[in-house]
Write a structure and sequence with these properties.
Structural class: alpha/beta
Oligomer: single chain
Largest sheet: 6 strands, parallel
Number of strands: 6
Strand order of the largest sheet: 2-1-3-4-6-5
Shape: globular
Radius of gyration: 20 Å
Distance between the termini: 31 Å
Length: 247
């Protein structure tokens, strides 16, 4: 879907690529500065501290749910066995996973709607871990949600989907303003090309495949709803979705 400028393009299958890469890196091991381990450890600790500070700051306040607040609460609730598939909205600084392979962001080769099917696919390979898809309302539509929830239920692959719902194609909205800051659309609160109102009741879709769906509109509801959804996924083995209204 996307391409990048390069000096040398090499086609390879993943097995051959990573086998050759592992061998090459092993041969260069003696070139690595031993003190680098300390610098990496210090950097990691600094990132964890900053993530904790960012979460505490985002949790303070009142009013409508913001994406920072949503990210902070999600980051606080997730445990070390959770794997987060973040499609755009999750604020990276709010998450501080301690276990490798616990955080994935939309890859350059991915398309809109990637997070939910990716989480279901990952559940196949790591059934003991809790898969969480953080996705917007527009990209949730792209994920073919009816098929995803059906597959999750049919194959016993429960995942948690957190939909950050602001009733618009936010990528279209902000890029239009970015490219044309003085354009006609930039002077409007809502653009016709990105307006998804009235918003569907996304929380009702999982129930068609024996899943749990919850609507969250207030800050005070969010943490309890997230914990209820995790309980559904981890103990009841039912896929779950939170439709979180944010501004």
């Amino acid at each position: 879907m996307r391409s990048h400028r390069c000096d040398l393009a090499i086609r390879s299958g993943p097995t051959a690529l990573f086998s050759a890469l592992a061998e090459a890196l092993d041969q260069r091991r003696h070139l690595i500065d031993p003190s680098r381990r300390e610098r990496v450890a210090a950097r990691a600790e600094d990132l964890r501290r900053r993530a904790a500070d960012a979460r505490r700051s985002a949790l303070v306040g009142s009013g409508p749910i913001t994406v920072e607040f949503l990210s902070a609460v999600l980051g606080s609730v997730l445990h070390e066995d959770c794997v987060l598939f973040n499609e755009h909205w999750g604020v990276r600084q709010m998450f501080a996973p301690t276990r490798p392979g616990s955080y994935f962001y939309l890859p350059a080769t991915g398309g809109l709607g990637w997070a939910l099917p990716a989480a279901i696919g990952a559940k196949v390979e790591a059934p003991d871990r809790t898969m969480v898809a953080a996705i917007g309302d527009g990209t949730y539509m792209f994920s073919n949600p009816v098929a995803c929830h059906h597959a999750s239920h049919k194959h016993g692959l429960p995942v948690l989907t957190v939909v950050a719902n602001n009733s618009r194609w936010d990528a279209v909205n902000w890029t239009s303003r970015l490219v044309y800051p003085n354009g006609h659309a930039s002077g409007r609160d809502w653009m016709e090309i990105s307006d998804l109102r009235p918003s569907p009741a996304y929380e009702k879709l999982p129930s068609a495949s024996d899943g749990l769906g919850l609507l969250v509109t207030e800050r005070s509801e969010l943490e309890g709803a997230l914990r209820q959804a995790l309980l559904s996924v981890e103990q009841e083995r039912r896929h779950a979705l939170l439709n979180v209204i944010w501004k």
